[in-house]
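Page 42, continued from yesterday. The earlier attempt failed because a stray header line got pasted into the input along with the sequence. Redoing it now with the clean sequence only.
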Amino acid sequence: MLQTNQVKAALKAGQIVTGPIVAETRTVGMIKKFKLAGHDFLFLDMEHAMFGWETMVNLVQSALAFGISPIVRATDLSYPLVARALDTGAQGVIIPRVESREQVEAAVSFAKYPPLGRRGAGGDGRTAFEALSVKDAVDFLNDETLVVVQIESQAGVDAIEEIASVPNLDVVLIGPQDLSISLGLHGQFTHPDFVETLRKVVTACKKHGVATGMVERSAAAHKLWFDLGMQFLVTNTDANMIFQAASADVATIKAFTNEP
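This time it went through. Structure tokens are written below.
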């Protein structure tokens, strides 16, 4: 049986979901570890990471097998990139640098089959290699595919009411680094003006029944965004997790060996 999208269901129920950005991981074992840790999804990055498609489909299918939702960030808003990401079997797609209603409409159309969009039907990976009738595959994937867009500029914030009003949009995710740069607040994620900007985004999205989310390296930092009403909490990166754990181990050894 195909897995329903538990992340999409949780968001609709008003629940919180968490998952790390995966950019350096290339092995099945690491995917299983994220599931065992209790995360709900993986943010598999095709924008800034250097994955090939053969690797991506293996990570996606492993995630499905382990019961953690694979969501792929496409490199850009273009049909070949969005469709290819979903044809790996990903349960959702993240579109970076969105600034207009028209871009969201295009994203939805690339991610959904007719009559909701224009996605082309084909490939076995999209249904986790299970044989389904054409209609069953289309109906299931139209229901279960998560569409996430990232707001990463002042222009995107200015258009948030129109962006959030697009049917079949599930999540508006803040891209904090780029948005802070656009606002002239480079990396100042707790600056009052930055927080107020995100409050505006959350308010608009709630009005239209769209969940909101944030990216943070520190899980504790998400308290602010949770209190603001965000549900989709992208927490840390795979590489930074390893760095943090390795740094702590080295510091522990140095503390009892008196090594500099």
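Notes: The chain has a mean pLDDT of 97.
Reminder to self: strip header lines before submitting.
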